């Protein structure tokens, strides 16, 4: 009976060590993701500039948004440097948890106006 427990424990240990290694990103995948996130950052800034040109945002609002975009970019770079690439899809760390805030936009943006209740 002890042998069965030892075998089960050994198999569990092998799986516990093998699964994270199999799911790890390669250096090429990390580099590609970093490049894509950089492109996304630049695209967000370009969109903001076009919105100002079209009169959809004032220069003051654009500056607030630009600061927020830059803060998020710095945070993303830090997370990528730590090897964490699980962000970008919703407010739940990449897994869609977090729900709708009901305030419009992202709910956390400095330029988002929250109506008085």
Note the topology.
Elements lengths: L1 H22 L3 H27 L5 H23 L36
Cα-to-Cα separation, first versus last residue? 67 Å
3D shape:
rod-shaped
Number of E-type strands: 0
Kindly report the average pLDDT value: 76
From the alpha-carbon coordinates, what is the Rg to the nearest angstrom?
A: 22 Å
SSE pattern: HHH
Taking the sheet with the most strands, its summary is: none
What is the number of helices? 3
Structural class: mainly alpha
- Seen as an oligomer or otherwise, the chain set is single chain
Helical content class = 55-70%
Strand content: under 5%
Low-pLDDT segments, ≥5 res? 96-104
Task: Provide structural commentary.
The protein is mostly helical. The chain is 62% helix and 0% strand. It is built from three helices and no strands. The chain has helices at residues 2-23, 27-53, 59-81. Helix 2 runs antiparallel to helix 3. The protein is rod-shaped. The N and C termini lie far apart (67 Å).
Q: How would you describe this structure in keywords?
A:
117 residues, mainly alpha, 3 helices, 62% helix
Outline of the structure:
This protein is mainly alpha-helical and 117 residues long.
């Amino acid at each position: 009976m002890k042998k069965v427990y030892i075998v089960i424990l050994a198999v569990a240990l092998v799986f516990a060590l093998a699964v994270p290694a199999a799911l790890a990103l390669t250096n090429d995948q990390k580099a590609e993701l970093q490049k894509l996130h950089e492109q996304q950052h630049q695209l967000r800034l370009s969109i903001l500039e076009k919105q100002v040109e079209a009169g959809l945002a004032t220069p003051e609002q654009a500056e607030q948004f630009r600061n927020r975009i830059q803060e998020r970019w710095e945070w993303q770079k830090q997370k990528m440097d730590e090897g964490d690439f699980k962000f970008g899809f919703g407010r739940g760390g990449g897994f869609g948890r977090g729900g709708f805030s009901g305030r419009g936009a992202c709910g956390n943006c400095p330029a988002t106006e929250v109506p008085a209740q």
